[in-house]
Structure formats: structure tokens, C-alpha cells
Amino acid sequence: MTLDPSVINALAPTGRLRASINLGNPILAGTLPDTGEPAGVSVDLARAFAAQLGVALELAVFDTAGKSVEAVGDEHADIGFFAIDPLRGEKIAFTAPYVLIEGFYLVRDDSPVVTNDDVDQPHNRVAVGKGSAYDLFLTRALKAAQIVRAPSSPGVVPMFLDEGLDVAAGVKQQLEADARRHAGLRLLDERFMVIRQAMGTPRSRGAAAAAALDAFVEAMKSSGFIADALARHRIVGASVAPC
């Protein structure tokens, strides 16, 4: 795809594409054990988009979704990888989703909480990662239960255990990994939400820039790039969003 120079300038006004990378969601990105460098599906997409624009890539790496969103919303980064949410959409223009991720609840084996409907009770304290997609969703959805926010998504289950909370909420893959590390935990049988993971750019960059980013995502889905990246990084618990 050949892009108009004005669109390239809108997306990369510094001459480099600054990509905000969230390490708090293992489905999106992590670090290589031997070098500590960021790697993952979002990093692969950032490299591919920078190559399409014909500019160098600069990664801005954060440990939480909230910080990653803030970087793009405040225009310290040009693109990012986030779950679609109306609150975030006030400053960020989202593409269509490229990956679908499931949000689940985790409880102790002896918990009386059996179904998702059991969670929203006044006596339940629900651990979430501050500023995550499921934090934003559950803040709107839960009417009776109390939400307790961990500093980051990987810190949700440790806080749930240390503080004796009743429920932990999060990305299914992260919760399954935590349940394998800690005996006596179980996931509920049904997801409470589907997290629609998308790319985004500041709304101030204009409609043409947002459309170019959306077209890139659609091309990456239809070409098999995203499916290949998920397989290469051995990601389970996520699926490519429909075109």
C-alpha cells in the first residue's frame, strides 16, 4: 500500500514511529529471556507498520495498560495496542479488533462463587489490574461487588492471595498460569467479557491517519500475519478477530 506523505507525517510526525507497548498483557508482548528485549505480537505489528510507513521504529515500553494508553492519549507515542473501550476512545481512534481475548474470574477451590452471577454481591471484593480493559468494563458492570485495584495485571492474583480477596478478574491465559503456580485455585466456567484488542492512534492525527492504520490491521488479519505471530510466540487463549 502506498500512503500519501501527509498521512505518513501525521502518523510519525517526529520521523520515527513511536509505538507504545504494554508488557502487562502476556498475549500482546513480553521480554526475551536472554536479552530482555520486548517481543510479541504487538511488537511484530509495530515493526511491520513502521516498515510500511518507511520510517524507523521506536518502542515505548510500559508495564501496565493504563500507562500505555496514556502515552498515546497524551501523544507521547504515535500508535498503541489496546482493548477497545469507550472511555479510551475519547482521545484514541481505534482500528477494528485484530485479536479477541477472553476475560475470566478466578476463585479459591472452596469459594461459594460458582457462576459469574455469584460475583456481583456486596460481600465480594474483586481484584483487577488498574486501568486494564476488564477494570474499565467491570467498573461499569458490577453494581454491588467492591473492586480492588492492583498496580498491574500480573499483580492481580498475588494481591488476591495476600489480601484474602474473594475474586480475581483478568485475561484467561494469565489466570490459568497463576492457577498452575498456586494450588487451590480455579477459574469459573464462563467468560465475563470478550476483550477486543485493537491498534489505536491519537484522534488528533486525523481521519486519514486512522483509516490507514485500520487498513493495515485488516491486511495483517487477512494475510495470516497475525495468526502466524500468535503461533510463533506460542500464544494460547486468543484468536484472530474476523475481518
Could you walk me through the main structural features you see in this protein, from its secondary elements to its overall organization?
The chain is of the alpha/beta class and about 240 residues long. It is built from eight helices and 13 strands. It has helices spanning about 5-10, 40-55, 65-75, 135-140, 155-160, 170-180, 205-220, 225-230; strands at about 15-20, 30, 40, 55-60, 80-85, 90-95, 100-110, 125-130, 145-150, 165-170, 185, 195-200, 240. Strands 1, 4, 5, 6, 7, 8, 9, 10, 11, 12 and 13 form an eleven-stranded mixed beta sheet that branches. Strands 2-3 form a two-stranded antiparallel sheet. Strand 8 (about 125-130), helix 4 and strand 9 (about 145-150) form a beta-alpha-beta unit. The mean pLDDT is about 95.
Q: How many strands, which pairing sense, and closed or not: the largest β-sheet?
A: 11 strands, mixed
Class by SSE composition: alpha/beta
Secondary structure tally: strands: 13
The average pLDDT is 94
User: Beta-strand percentage?
Assistant: 25-35%
Radius of gyration (Å)? 18 Å
Residue runs with pLDDT of under 50 for 5 or more positions: none
Please write the string of helix (H) and strand (E) elements: HEEEHEHEEEEHEHEHEEHHE
Report the span from N to C terminus.
Answer: 18 Å
